[in-house]
Design goal:
alpha+beta; five-stranded antiparallel beta sheet; rod-shaped; single chain; 238 residues
């Protein structure tokens, strides 16, 4: 009789152990799950995983200390759901973003490129071999900073500038120079490929339309010469 009781007791403990093991297996399976963002908010996301919906799940960002990053997840983006709780529910889960999917593939597969694609045609590409950075900003870029540039610069397009332009080197223009407003030339300025000595010089023709050139109070357009008879001549004409 005692032997049978002991067998039945062992059988009960074995059943209890199997139930605990199944419960533990179920809990372990719920610790890390693959999910998809269903809705995205300012600091949380709703994530579907299998047939479950976890609401108000905080999502990871690259940094959140002295250095901070923010990027709101995209609906349809895949993530890893990490359950920090002990139960089967996902109320204490957090979402780790950054998994690629068929909907959101890698922006590049080149091993020598580091790329960040912001969407809408905006992206930054760093080439590990050449050390070059290529940026695409279709919406433009606004920079609030003092800028120090060392090296050559090639520019294609118009330049609209407010403020002074100070150059300590030569300014060489191979196109038309259109200027609106006053024009001041200081002695010893650079023109062409050589520095003038004591006076500014222009190489080529100088055309003044609907205006005049005044030198020390004498008008080139309106000045007179004294003729052979000692009388002023007529004004200068074309």
């Amino acid at each position: 009789m005692n032997f049978i009781k002991r067998i039945l007791s062992i059988e009960k403990k074995l059943r209890d152990f199997i139930e605990e093991f199944k419960d533990l297996e179920r809990r372990v399976a719920n610790i890390i799950r693959l999910g998809t963002v269903q809705s995205a908010y300012d600091s949380t996301v709703d994530v579907t995983t299998s047939s479950n919906l976890a609401k108000g799940v905080p999502f990871f960002v690259p940094a959140m200390g002295r250095v901070k990053d923010y990027r709101r997840p995209t609906v349809g983006e895949q993530c890893i759901l990490i359950n920090l709780g002990n139960g089967d529910n996902l109320n204490n889960a957090v979402a780790l973003m950054g998994l690629r999917s068929s909907r959101f593939p890698f922006p590049t597969l080149n091993e020598n490129e580091v790329m960040r694609d912001y969407g809408g045609g905006m992206k930054e590409v760093y080439n590990l071999d050449s050390g070059s950075v290529t940026c695409f900003y279709p919406g433009g870029m606004t920079l609030h900073a003092d800028l120090t540039h060392i090296g050559n610069q090639e520019h294609t397009g118009n330049t609209n500038r407010t403020g002074d332009t100070i150059s300590t080197g030569q300014i060489i223009s191979t196109g038309v120079f259109n200027h609106a407003g006053s024009f001041s030339v200081s002695i010893g300025a650079v023109y062409g490929m050589a520095r003038s000595q004591g006076a500014s010089s222009f190489s080529g023709s100088l055309h003044v339309l609907n205006g005049d050139v005044v030198v020390d109070g004498y008008s080139v357009k309106l000045h007179h010469h004294i003729g052979n008879e000692g009388k002023p001549t007529s004004e200068a004409k074309q």
